[in-house]
Amino acid sequence: MLRSMFSAISGLRAHQTKMDVTGNNIANVNTVGFKGSQTVFQDTLSQVIRAGGAPAADRGGTNPAQVGLGVKVAAITTNWTQGATQSTGRSTDFMIEGDGFFVTRGTGGEQLFTRAGSFDFDGAGKLVTPDGSILQGWMADENGVVNPNGPIGDLSVPYGQIVAPSASTSGVIDGNLPSDAPIGAPLQTGITMFDSQGVEQKIFYNLTRTAANTWDVTIEHATQGVLQTVTGVTFDDAGNLLNPAAPGLLPSFNPNTVVPAGRFPSWNNAVQIDISGLTQYGGSNTLGAPTQDGYALGSLQSFQLGADGTIMGVYSNELRQPIGRLALASFNNPGGLEKAGNSSFRVGVNSGVAQVGTAGVGGRGSLMSGALEMSNVDLAEEFTGLIVAQRGFQANSRVITSSDEILQDLVNLKR
């Protein structure tokens, strides 16, 4: 009788723990990035009333008679399945699609890990969690180059950051030149280039047909005259560029040294034009000048997050240049992480070491901007578990009541 009472007491404790875990899951049903937990029960040692016997020639074997001594909580496991996507539209809200954790630097420099991607800026321009932990990653150098093999550090988005102008060094002419274009009639397209001070330079490309498959290319400044003339640009009978041969580059020229020299003191560098995209087919004129590599003075206006974690800065001069890259961490056993509060985890003795790297490689998921991962708690499942825990607790309390009544009957035998 005492065995049944103590077994029931262990059942009360175990089901109370299940209630605690279920209650915590329900409490965090709207917590960003929360992962629900489940309670796993396990029976305890059993008392052997009669040992089992092996079969013999003159008798059969017997099984042991064992009375269990109760239940215990074997484990409280974490459900790491993906939560639903909640679109927020905030550029500083990030979501991990797949495995991995954001890396943050907490109080005292402790490295923490979280699935909650709701970040914001502090007064220094750093990306921080609601509790002030700083998001970690790699910052780009002045040329926009990110080294993901280096040590991670604090990530910041320096709004208003000035990017110095850069002189144009290359351009592109592409499109179709009509095979029936009249000889001597130029086709024109243009583009804006920049000198080293970021001053706009209006450039026109004039292509004039001089023979059946032959064209001249003239590069002309809007106010300062001709900068370069290239003759003998030819196409084969199929309409494909023949000369200059691959890679289809015109000879480079220096705007400041073109006769008469000294017209562009702040644009004193080689410029080369790529015409490999030109064709001469029958049809309409689609001549264009889609790109050049110079830009004016600009300041950071906004940013975008790529699926690989690259933070792409968008500048007022239309330049797009990386300003940093988020770091993600993965673990051999994420269930071994220790909860540190504030939706964060720290490395546990059974989690393995943090494998920090970029998104999309090494088993780490990809990133999405403007969205958050919702809690993966299933209310229907939790309410069912709540009923099971309640009934289990109730049944165990009934065992104690019944055991007490039997003990009372035993005491009354004396009367």
TrEMBL record:
Keyword Acyltransferase: no
InterPro entries to which the protein is assigned, alphabetical: Falgellar_hook_FlgE_sf (IPR037058), Flag_bb_rod_N (IPR001444), Flagellar_FlgE/F/G (IPR020013), Flg_bb/hook_C_dom (IPR010930), FlgE/F/G-like (IPR037925), FlgE_D2 (IPR011491), LlgE_F_G-like_D1 (IPR053967)
Compartment annotation: Bacterial flagellum basal body
Flagellar basal body rod protein N-terminal domain location: 7-35
Boundaries of every Flagellar basal-body/hook protein C-terminal domain copy: 368-413
Residues annotated as transmembrane: none
Purpose: A flexible structure which links the flagellar filament to the drive apparatus in the basal body.
PANTHER family noted in UniProt: FLAGELLAR HOOK PROTEIN FLGE, FLAGELLAR PROTEIN
Similarity section: Belongs to the flagella basal body rod proteins family.
Name of the protein in question: Flagellar hook protein FlgE
